[in-house]
Predict the structure.
Amino acid sequence: MTRVALMRCKEYRNDLLTDVIARGMAAAGFDMESLMGARVILKPNLLMPTHPDKAVVTHPEFFRAAAMVVLEYGGTPILVENPNFFSLENTLKKVGYGPIMEELGIQVPDPVPTRPLRWEHGKLYRTIDISAAYFDADIILNLVKFKTHSFTYVTGAVKHLFGVIPGLKKSRMHMRVPDQADFADYLLDLYGGLKYGMGPDRQLFHLVDGVRSMEGEGPGPTGSPRDWGVVLAGEDAIAVDWVAVKTAGLDPAKVFTIGQGFKRDFGPNSSEDIQVVGESIQDLACQFTPPKNTIYGGVVWPLTSKTVKNWLVEKPAPNPEKCILCYQCMKTCPAQAIAKAPEGKKVPAFDYRKCIRCFCCMEICPEAAIGLKQGALQWIFSFKQEAK
């Protein structure tokens, strides 16, 4: 059985968090003594420089508590993270990590140099370039910010590991693997490589910051913060994600990394193989608002026609009342589907025939100025669901 610790924690208070994180790790089967003398990489979610209360990033107090647990058990905490577009230095300052880094003496190696991660059992990719810094770790603690996600349904432990790839190289992968099911297989290849392809002496463990999470049109500022009051801990990312999704009242069948992950041979084969320790799912259950993307609505087929896709699938649409024409959406778009605003217009020009619906533009927009607009014939999906 794969153990996942589900813990209650309603405040970002250091004494509470350090206790909950340490107890959760131990309850989930992590050998706390293995931290002694270990180089421990803490991998938070630092998507963009934004206030932590917006639930876009791993909260600085969650990061502080994890680092203090590492120090308490004799380890050396190291931060490695790759914001998609923004500089890491600026992001650390803006989200409140700066004083923590200085206070605890946490190292921050350059995340840009890469090294190939090889795993012979990959389904789509057997070699993936990741930040070379991860190869210098004895232990990797994946500090997940649980959020809903317009492309992958949720950001969980598996999806969060996408951040081991530097900067805009992540956006390019959306272009190479635009299909959601294939993208899930790519993420599982990456997860399998991190779990098994870095040698037997490295550990990978997952901690989920669910004290305050995000629902709706995440994972960027267009999502809505939600106080949840949970922390999860586990060695297996697929199991951790299943417990998180069930506790949040969302549908595990819509998280392709869970369903497709169960079919792989490096984790649980079903929910029956998962043991929840600590609190019960029923006691902490709630109902998150899911993302609106209709690809999860039970109708999935190869949308090979660009015209059909524009009619039947949501598309990102800029709001002229919020847009400041910073063009960060244009810079991050892997499909080069966004151009500068035509003369007299207040928003960038979107070419929806090129758009691959990765929603990177929504994710990265600092003004939350990009929302979802329904396709002209999307009512067909709604009608079908209501008729069931």
